[in-house]
Amino acid sequence: MSQWKLIRARGWDGAIPTEDPDGRWLHLIIDSDSSANVLKRSVLEDLSDRIEEIPQQEGIEAVIVSSAKESHFIAGADVSSIGSAQDRDQVIDLCRMAQDLFGTLSNLQVPSICVIRGTCLGGGLELALGCSARIGVDCPPTRIGFPEVNLGIIPGFGGTVRTTQLLGLRGAFDWILRAHRLPAPIALRKGLLDAVVPVEGFRTLSLQLIEKMLEDDLRAVQARRKKRRKGFVNSLLDGTGIGRALTSRVALKNVRHKTMGNMPAPESAIAVARFSASHDAISSFKKEAAEVATLALGPVCRHLVSIFQDSEVIRRGAPLDPQGVWPSNRNLLILGAGIMGSGVATVAIEKGIPVRLRDISEDALDSGLKAIGKAIATKRKRNRISDHQQSEILSRLGHGTDLAGVSHCGGVLEAVVERLDVKRAVLAEIGAHLPEDAIFATNTSALSVTAIQHDSPVAERVVGLHFFNPVTR
User: Fold this and answer.
1) Are 181 and 262 found together in one domain?
2) Which residue of 214, 308, 317, 356 has the fewest C-beta atoms within 10 A of its own C-beta?
3) Based on the domain organization, do 209 and 159 belong to the same domain?
4) Are residues 218 and 348 in the same domain?
5) Cα–Cα dist 26/23, whole Å
6) pLDDT tens readout for residues 361-414
7) For the chain, how big is the Rg over CA atoms in Å?
8) Residue 113: CB partners within 8 Å, gap ≥ 6?
9) pLDDT tens digit string along 128-181?
10) What does the DSSP 8-state code read for residue 182?
11) 158/285 same-domain check
12) pLDDT on residue 472
């Protein structure tokens, strides 16, 4: 049995023992000093230095790429750098750097085999695609996929091109457009992995499997990949211009049906994949990088990245600073004091947002105010807040049956009865007084936002904002 030789990126922590420093296999272990491996520029540069050393290693017959983290292989690229990018050339340069790096890995004179345990997303999967073969570990933390379209971009470190080369257009569209995060067995079935081992004893099993793969020069792996691409349908759809055009047209139609043309990233992914299916790798990688630059500097990507970052803050338990997202001197006007309206009002005042709750029914308004008071009192009873905090939270709540203060509100949320005529009437009433910088959010769960905003003079500021019931949970 061959042993592992160790090479680590400069400046990275993590002591992974090597049983035999003179082994035939070189083990490239990714282990950052944070909880998850993230492909920042500095990490890519360090990784490039290490990969460039590989050809100088004598007696090496294979390179094994893995992570020292138990729950993460590589979580992806640095999202903050995507959201803060200011220069098109800078984005292109980063993408081309990563593409070239993973290309160097794939063009080594010896096979490179990736063992994936834990999260392998975005840039991590793109690195894995640069390897000759990929082995997944079947355990709950292992999730594999391309989440990029949810951030308003596409895989730009070579992932769009390499996935198309590996799986064809339909396979690439399935992975990239749907933003799958799939466990190892399903990733194997869908063609991105070449083998899967159970988590119990995975190191030994991986070694044995790698030994077997190398014995026949990965011919069995290549044969399985070719078998997936065989058949008349695959040959027609991927091997002919008409087939590629038809496949891309159907994918584009489905995307536009779902996004109404408001999400450019999926359309860019289709364009790059189709281009790469009939062009050489160099020009395809250039187009991929150029598309990423265009998307990264656009408003959709900026907004989606901001939403993602705020969601991560909340997921980690750190509350958002309401002063950063809502002006302290302007109310949120909530229309309808029923279960949904009072629930949203409760959450809003807890988060520091001043609220004016309005309902045309005095009885409904009274019931809503009692529900809010009870919810806050329950938190005080359970010692989640102090007496002072309870008073402070409730001081943010105003109420009435009229539209007092609507012309100075920061935004409106309607939670009235689920009837199109009623919601349109409410919009017509409010729209005449709505400040120019305020939005009107409808909490509809079934009605069309387009139908609600139809013919409204403020239609461009009408959005759908759905809360699940009960809101306070």
Assistant:
1) yes
2) 317
3) yes
4) no
5) 7
6) 999 999 999 999 999 999 999 888 899 999 999 999 999 999 887 888 889 999
7) 27
8) 62, 63, 64, 65, 131, 132, 133, 134, 135, 210, 213
9) 999 999 999 999 999 999 999 999 999 999 999 999 999 999 999 999 999 989
10) B
11) yes
12) 81
CATH code (residue 441): 3.40.50.720
Both 216 and 75 in one domain: the answer is yes
Chain position carrying tokens 């993408």: 95
**What letter would DSSP give residue 298?**
S
Q: Which structure tokens are listed for 134?
A: 């990929």
- The residue with greater pLDDT, 212 or 12, is 212
| Token pair 């290693």 in the structure block, residue | 57
Query: Which helix (DSSP H) or strand (DSSP E) does residue 392 occupy?
Result: helix 387-395
CA distance 400 to 246: 58
- As beta bridge partners, residue 119 has 72
Is cis: bond before 21, omega within 30 of 0?
Answer: no
Structure tokens at 176: 């990239």
**C-alpha–C-alpha distance, residues 372 and 353, integer Å:** 14
Q: Are residues 264 and 373 in the same domain?
A: no
Coil, helix or strand for 421?
helix
Q: Which residue has the tokens 């905090």?
A: 389
Classify 370 in phi/psi space as left (phi over 0), alpha (psi -120 to 50) or beta.
alpha
CATH of the domain at 107: 3.90.226.10
Q: Are 236 and 243 in contact (CB under 8 A)?
A: yes
Total structural domains in the chain? 2
Same domain, 383 and 244: no
Total Cβ atoms within 10 A of residue 11: 11
Inter-residue long-range contacts of 5-9, CB under 8 Å, 24+ positions, other chains counted: 5/57, 5/60, 7/50, 7/53, 7/54, 7/57, 8/50, 9/43, 9/46, 9/47, 9/49, 9/50
Residue 414 CB neighbours (<10 A) = 24
Helix ranges (DSSP H) in 84-158: 88-106, 123-129
Identity of the residue numbered 324: G
- CB count within 10 Å of CB 297 equals 16
Place of tokens 């090496």: 60
**Tens-place pLDDT, residues 58-82:** 888 899 999 988 889 999 888 878 7
Domain that holds residue 395: 322-464
- Name which of 9, 116, 123, 11 is nearest 70 in CA terms: 116
